[in-house]
Specification:
The complex is a heterodimer of chains A (375) and B (256).
Chain A (H helix, E strand, L loop, with lengths): L1 H22 L3 H21 L1 H8 L2 H18 L4 H26 L7 H18 L4 H25 L2 H21 L9 E2 L4 E2 L2 E2 L4 E3 L2 E3 L2 H23 L2 H11 L1 H6 L4 H27 L1 E2 L6 H14 L4 H17 L7 H15 L17
Antiparallel strand pairs in A: 1-6, 2-3, 4-5
Chain B lengths: L2 E12 L2 E12 L3 E5 L6 H8 L7 E6 L2 E2 L5 H6 L2 E3 L12 H8 L8 H5 L2 H27 L11 H13 L5 E5 L7 H18 L2 E5 L3 H7 L2 E6 L2 E6 L1 H6 L1 H6 L5
Parallel strand pairs in B: 3-8, 3-9, 6-7, 7-8
Antiparallel strand pairs in B: 1-2, 1-4, 4-5, 9-10
Helix pairs in contact in B: 3-6, 5-6, 6-7
The chains are: A mainly alpha (375), B alpha/beta (256).
């Protein structure tokens, strides 16, 4: 009970902080806020208080609080297009990183083509929404399915290689994919494609919201949809980790020889993780494309794949909560603190190097598996 | 004698090097066979070929009267042969329980639907396995059962060895291959571990093949011995018979 109360308090503080940060306009005040957050983070890490609360509070409660925090934050910022867009972007990128986490964090399959599979989802959504009358929610899933399908092209080479070589193959794919998009006229070439408005049931996502006295930005609907989709996949990925499959994927990553000696089909589990991961990334890509309404090869450059990987390293490989935090940092920081906008790649690179040197398990290291009830 | 495991003319070459040279091995149920020989005599290679990590270059392996020569490691495990490794191969970041469950792979349901959706059923299977893991660890070393959910990297070396043996045992194999379980342990720890293994062997009616350098261990716990040199069998029998054998004394014990 005590830890639940503490978790509620922490959630409230974080929500209030996020509200302040997203509302803040002047650069000095933003800098002060960020400095405060860093200080709080250091204190929390040093005193291990956050870790204690985290270990004590039931997973479901923590998830509920996080969900509520996003809802409250969105309602507080209801008229602020830009902040809502940023928040939705964070949710979508968390979703994509979850996919990467299943691949790299659990099964140890490297994927430096995250943005490409994100792009497959986006292009699939663009093609399907303009040329078919499929329900748009189904199109989101089709985006995932298409990404998983395209991923099968890489299966054979990825399964036959390890470490750096597997990484090189995915890098080659990422570069080829973008070139392919640029020269392919049916896919719009360098100009890209436009998407139709997202429609789910009676909701037209691009209309402003007016419910009696309540008025809100049209981004609220995208945010709500992204939040629901993310919640579903977040829960699924946590369940995956806390299951026999989670143990199996970890064993495949840590020691293939020992795993094979105990009957684990290495290829089967790598394929499962890679495909499932690409599916999730593809859904995120489709969602993102609908929200932006327009996609082009530039959105899916290799640099974006690197950002996804660095989020994973920064947050803590194998820990969905860690990568949620890291995504928030990586997306919001350059948008709010404009001085670093131009240097963001430099900054992320430096951050990743520092993390690997001084905190190799990431900002929020992966906790031990909790298979027991309530975990 | 009905052989549980029988190898005929088992050969494995690495380029020009003959690591196993037309080896004939018969192991009956309930035996504890000690496999001895100088470094590089092919003992571990024998295990690796047996468990399918290296394909055999020639010859055949039969287990319970079925041909298993070309099985992959996964297949060998599924028919009931489990092993430990000379250098510990536990997944150190994972908990003791997780490591044991890797060993119990063939008895767990790995369906996506079962694992992601049928959480109640999964939870029951988890609880059953936690109980089974505790029981097995208790047989070995009762205090170890209390550390079931600690990372394997955080427990002492002798306990890691125990966990490794338990990982091989938890799926209830018919044949257990132990590759130098005493490596890196003190004399006392070795004796302790061997007693544990022997107790479990009697309790479960296991058949064991054991690679070991420490002769006192071999003398104490094996029912039969086989001596390899340059990939060939140069002697077999009980320890008393083998240790009197002149060839063995020359090749292994270093006597003129």
């Amino acid at each position: 009970m005590k830890t639940t109360g503490a978790a509620a308090l922490i959630t409230a503080v974080v929500t209030a902080f996020m509200w302040l940060l997203l509302r803040a306009e002047s650069q000095p005040s933003i800098a002060v806020l960020i400095a405060l957050a860093v200080a709080a983070g250091v204190v929390a890490a040093r005193s291990r208080s956050l870790a204690r609360v985290r270990a004590g509070a039931p997973e479901r409660v923590v998830q509920g609080f996080a969900f509520a925090a996003v809802v409250v934050l969105a309602l507080l910022l209801r008229g602020d297009d830009f902040s809502l867009l940023l928040m939705t972007r964070v949710l979508i990128v968390i979703l994509a990183c979850l996919g990467l986490n299943v691949q790299f964090g659990y099964a140890g399959v490297v994927n430096f083509a995250g943005a490409s599979f994100f792009g497959v989802g986006g292009y699939t959504a663009a093609l399907l929404c303009t040329s078919t009358r499929l329900p748009h929610l189904l199109i989101l899933l089709c985006g995932g399915a298409a990404a998983a399908l395209v991923g099968t092209v890489l299966l054979l080479p990825v399964l036959r290689t390890r470490g750096h070589y597997a990484a090189l193959i995915t890098i080659a794919f990422a570069l080829l994919f973008r070139t392919f998009l640029e020269v392919n006229d049916t896919l719009g070439g360098p100009q890209g494609l436009k998407l139709r408005e997202l429609v789910v049931g009676p909701f037209h996502f691009n209309d402003a919201i007016e419910l009696g006295a309540f008025e809100g930005s049209f981004y609220l609907r995208y945010l709500a949809l992204a939040l629901v989709v993310l919640t579903i996949f977040f829960g699924l990925v946590l369940r995956l980790e806390r299951s026999w499959i989670g143990i199996t994927l970890d064993a495949v990553r840590l020691d293939e020889i020992a795993a094979a000696t105990f009957g684990l089909e290495i290829a089967r589990w790598k394929i499962t993780a890679f495909t499932l991961g690409n599916f999730i990334i593809g859904v995120a890509g489709a969602l993102s494309a609908f929200m932006i309404g327009f996609i082009a090869p530039n959105n899916y450059a290799f640099a974006e794949s690197l950002i996804l990987v660095s989020i994973l390293l920064l947050g803590g490989v194998g820990n969905p909560w860690g990568l949620a935090l890291a995504t928030a940092i990586v997306i919001l920081l350059p948008e709010k603190l404009q001085v670093i906008q131009e240097y963001r790649f430099l900054l992320f690179a430096a951050m990743v190097i520092l993390i690997l040197l001084f905190r190799p398990a990431g900002l929020v290291p992966r906790p031990p598996r909790r298979l027991e009830p309530g975990g | 004698m009905t052989a549980l495991l029988s190898c005929r003319g088992l050969t494995r070459t690495f380029g020009g090097l003959v690591a196993l040279d037309a080896l004939d091995v018969e192991v009956a149920e309930g035996w504890v066979l000690g496999l001895i020989g100088p470094n590089g005599s092919g003992k571990t290679t024998f295990f690796n070929v047996l468990t399918g990590l290296f394909p055999a270059s020639a010859g055949q392996i039969r287990f319970e009267n079925a041909e298993i020569t070309d099985l992959k490691p996964q297949g060998v495990y599924r028919i009931g042969i489990a092993r430990t490794f000379q250098r510990s191969r536990l997944c150190l970041p994972l908990s003791v329980f997780d490591n044991l469950m890797v060993g119990n792979h063939r008895n767990l349901n790995h369906g996506l639907w079962f694992n992601l959706v049928r959480r109640q059923a999964l939870r029951r299977q988890v609880e059953e396995n936690v109980a089974a893991a505790r029981e097995l660890l208790t047989i070995f070393h009762a205090p170890l059962a209390a550390r079931l959910f600690e990372p394997a990297g955080g427990i002492p070396m002798i306990d890691r060895r125990r966990v490794e043996v338990c990982r091989a045992l938890i799926s209830r194999p018919k044949l257990l291959l132990l590759d130098e379980p005493s490596a890196g342990m003190t004399h006392e720890e070795t004796l302790q571990l061997m007693d544990d293994i022997l107790r479990v062997q009697r309790k479960l009616g296991l058949t064991i093949i054991l690679i070991e350098h420490e002769m006192s261990v071999i003398e104490r716990i094996t029912s039969h011995c086989m001596v390899l040199n340059y990939g060939r069998k140069i002697a077999e029998g009980t320890y008393a018979q083998v240790s009197r054998n002149l060839l063995v004394r020359q090749a292994y014990l270093g006597l003129e």
